[in-house]
Design brief:
Number of strands: 11
Structural class: alpha/beta
Mean pLDDT: 95
Low-confidence stretches: 1-5
CATH superfamily: Class I glutamine amidotransferase (GATase) domain
Strand content: 25-35%
CATH class: Alpha Beta
Distance between the termini: 28 Å
Strand order of the largest sheet: 2-1-3-4-11-10-9-6-7
CATH topology: Rossmann fold
Radius of gyration: 17 Å
Number of domains: 1
């Protein structure tokens, strides 16, 4: 069968936040960042503006799912949080390939009975070192978060960890997992984001520290390919 007649995977992107402003114009919103990350994959996309209350009706509307990052906290009292949690439980029960990133990582944990809170150690920003427990190797990925999963749900497996963020990656099933860091964020985007947050959310010292290693080599492409393989049904955890 020729490639043009092969069935394409439809990825549902659950958009839980917006950048807006100059950053949104320059780098695209969260869905566009994931589309760029998966640019070599034969995917079609359906975006659901969850932040506006647009929740899919059932897990089979798309072949696989991504839950994006957000500036919001999963514990905040938005009217779309509980419906999203209900849908996440349906996704995990269905076995449809599902990946949550940052806020997506945290909301999956909360939906399944875990606990998320502002970390007493402060912000995790910039290029961070993690240990991939699947292969025992180090992974260097970009992070930007103050909240963390502090208690993982029962029946999950820890797949990514660091000294700063213990529960940085959780596996729910062979097709469903989540990560705290952002493989979809480029170094250029993070530099602009850090400088925008300087002296607003981040102290000058935090911002300067976050920029020290931001242009060093990272594993975004490798993790992006891994996520794409899971979403396409070509890999299992």
């Amino acid at each position: 069968m020729s490639a043009e007649f092969e069935r394409r995977t439809t990825v549902g992107i659950l958009q839980t936040g917006r950048l807006g402003g100059a950053l949104g114009v320059r780098y695209g919103e969260y869905p566009e960042m994931f589309m760029e990350l998966f640019s070599s994959a034969p995917f079609d996309y359906q975006t659901y503006a969850v932040i506006d209350g647009q929740i899919p009706k059932h897990a089979l509307e798309c072949d696989s799912w991504v839950i994006t990052g957000s500036k919001h906290g999963v514990y905040e009292d938005f009217d779309w949080i509980k419906p999203l949690e209900t849908f996440i439980r349906k996704l995990i029960a269905s076995g449809q390939p599902t990946v949550g990133i940052c806020f997506g990582h945290q909301i999956m944990a909360q939906a399944m009975g875990g606990k998320v809170e502002k970390f007493k150690g402060g912000w995790g920003v910039g290029l961070k070192e993690y240990t991939d427990l699947g292969n025992g190797q180090k992974a260097y990925l970009i992070a930007s978060h103050q909240d963390q999963v502090v208690t993982p749900p029962e029946n999950t497996e820890l797949i990514l960890t660091s000294d700063f963020c213990i529960y940085a990656g959780l596996k729910y099933s062979p097709t469903c997992f989540s990560l705290q860091p952002h493989p979809e964020h480029s170094a250029a985007f993070m530099i602009d984001l850090i400088n925008q947050r300087r002296s607003v959310q981040l102290t000058a010292e935090e911002a300067d520290d976050a920029l020290v290693y931001i242009n060093e080599p990272n594993d975004n492409e490798r993790y992006g390919q891994w996520i794409a393989d899971v979403l396409a049904g070509d890999a299992r955890l």
